[in-house]
Amino acid sequence: MTTYSLMSGGEKLVTADTFSVINPSTMVTVGESPKASIEDLNSIIKEARKAFTSWSTTPYEKRQQYINQIADTLETHSQELASIITQEQGKPIGAPLGSMFEMGGAVAWTRFTASLELPVKVLQDDENGHIELHRRPIGVVASITPWNWPVMIAIWHIIPAVLAGNTVVCKPSPYTPLSTLRMIELINRVLPKGVVNSIAGGDELGAAISDHIGIDKIVFTGSTDTGKKIMSSSSKSLKNLTLELGGNDAGIVLGDCNPDEIVPGLFWGAFINNGQTCAAMKRLYVHRSIYKEICDSLTAFAKSVKMGDGFADGAELGPIQNKMQFNIVNQLVKTSIQQGGEVLLGGPLDSEESLFFPVTFIAVEKNDNALVQHEQFGPALPIIPFDTVEEAILLANDNSAGLGGSVWSNDKQAAAKIAGQMECGTVWINKHGAIQPNAPFGGIKSSGLGVEFGEEGLLANTTIQCIFS
């Protein structure tokens, strides 16, 4: 069994304890992760702070070169890292949206981020004086990542932070730490010692990070409840925060759509990574005139999609990653049915012998249904009819989350008008969840603070200094 290590100051750190990581497809242990203590955390943060002095003054062009070298390294080791992702996360390795896709995204995001610039901005240059706006690194950035996209989300956190001149301490989810730990070990072959460090363990480490005086910024992707706890504890030292939290994305399908044309996009917009994606479609509102056609076409399409072990030929969907999330999805489906929802396909499971949950569609009439109001983060989609565009917008906005949304129509101008009235950070037209490294991404309402990606995401890893002369 492969041995995984923490990285501290460019060196492997041996911990006193380890914990087992389970393959959700087979329920077999795939590796042992180091389990850090609070003392280990203190030591790792100390190394990151030590490295910040020299890294923050490294010329920007040199940092860009380092980032491109990281992209080369990730590309070289894509197959290895994808295999680890599939073992610990469950997503199929060769599926169009599987673990090799995740590695391709990680490489692409790294290369694009390396191309971004941080120019000095001249605010004034006249007889009254010269004023320049400079972007400075913040310090030590803590990255706390979830279990659904363990490598790609870590890259989203780490690369812009490092390019901006910060050093990083990354804590992956205890459900999927192995691929991230290995990735950071590979990154350390490229970067100077202490620029990117890793820590692994349970929730107590996350709490210690958010409270730690040695951390200057936290980038967190995960649940809204955990984000609120981080925000509260980090307030003691006024840490800078970027929080990408829970989503409950709504899709609105207008009556002029051709069901056969849009159903593949609807399906994968909802079930990318088996629905375990923050910006997956979680609620689908369909005009009553084509409601039955959409429901019938979706169920027919779903029956053609193969679910199975991540290394099985042809597998496109894997299991739910962990038992806690499986229980959340299963209970929400049960409650939805109790509240009047009609099962169109799939449905709740009485047996919990495995973490494979069938693709499930529930026809729902009322917006207060549990499966509509609560983020399921799994392969179950409520489908709700509407009669007017105004009603659809009200229903879509009737939720505390505000990450993404989509509008589906042959009339792009009408769709764009609806998009402008949706209360969310990103709206797609005739697709869902298509994030890009050049477009800032973030939520409103309870879906988070700040943005990632593109120039705006890079700037979020800096502070402003104005120089008057």
Automatic annotation (TrEMBL):
It holds the Pfam family Aldedh. CDD domains: ALDH_AldA-AAD23400. InterPro entries: Ald_DH/histidinol_DH, Ald_DH_C, Ald_DH_CS_CYS, Ald_DH_CS_GLU, Ald_DH_N, Aldehyde_DH_dom, LUC3-like. Residues 17-465 form the Aldehyde dehydrogenase domain. Keywords: Oxidoreductase. The active site is at E244. Belongs to the aldehyde dehydrogenase family. This is Aldehyde dehydrogenase family protein.
